[in-house]
Amino acid sequence: MTTTPQPSNTNPSRVIPLTCSGHTRPVVHLQFSPITDGTYYLISACKDGNPMLRDGPTGDWIGTFMGHKGAVWSAKLSKDASKAVTASADFTAKVWDTYTGDVLHSFTHGHIVRSTDISDDGTRIVSGGQEKKLRIYDLNKPSEPTAEAEGHESTIKSVIWDGERNVVLSAGDDKEIRVWDLRNLSQVNTFKTEHSITSMELSADGKYITCTAGKIVYFLDASTYQASKSIATAYDVSSVSLHPDHKRFVAGGSNDLWVRIYDFESGKELEVYKGHHGPIHTVSYSPDGEIYATGSEDGTIRLWQTTPGKSYGLWQNKATKDEKENEVNGIPTEQ
User: What's domain 17-329's architecture?
Assistant: First the structure.
């Protein structure tokens, strides 16, 4: 299914994203945390070397993690959002305390680290990058990696820790997703694509592995590592995120300024929005599915509503605003 993309939303003028500024170079990776203590958080990786933590529903800046000396290629949060892990061009992967902003651990590699992830219990991390090597570190014994594995023939672009299945996944320029058993870091499965893999994420419920390669979006069954669905687009896809209800997904393009929403079942393009002034490198849905975030070459993060006009976070529709004003003025709300 390859069509010429056309804006299909009925009233694009009403779709007003929130713009989160602060980064000074391209934003290359975004991730929302799960809901914890009634809210959730957003972390961003940027080529300016300063990953940032934000309040998820509003995008309000919470803090910047200072310490990297090169571009940060990936940033992820632990399940409880108490720790962050980052991968950098300064040859390190770092673990951060999200409450204090302090570096808890810094793991030196032999080359650029492109991706990292943290275990469900927050005690171990996995890293990969231009060394083409996978490493596991135990934060309780941080002096040396507890396991290493080789197999990729070129740069590893994405790694995922899948604690439910006791595996880690890695993907990259050699056009393969590799699955590794955490017990001995032996390779137990692979999935091949026709082009270099530019992104890979695990869906919020752990059911699907989403990945992008060339103009194709893949949705793999996370239990079998077989493609449940693949959808062709008319542009090079940089990143994709599946809505928690599995009814739609958002995609960004490496040479495209448009944010595109698709129907998951049919692959039909539903909505197209423009807001960024540069290609979109990364997209991510919030854990409640109410918003999605996009990060761009233009150095900004934008937050978009899944249902434009709905009262949520900093978005409040006119009726809700009027009700609040009436409450302040002592005017009863009509029932």
Answer: 7 Propeller (2.130)
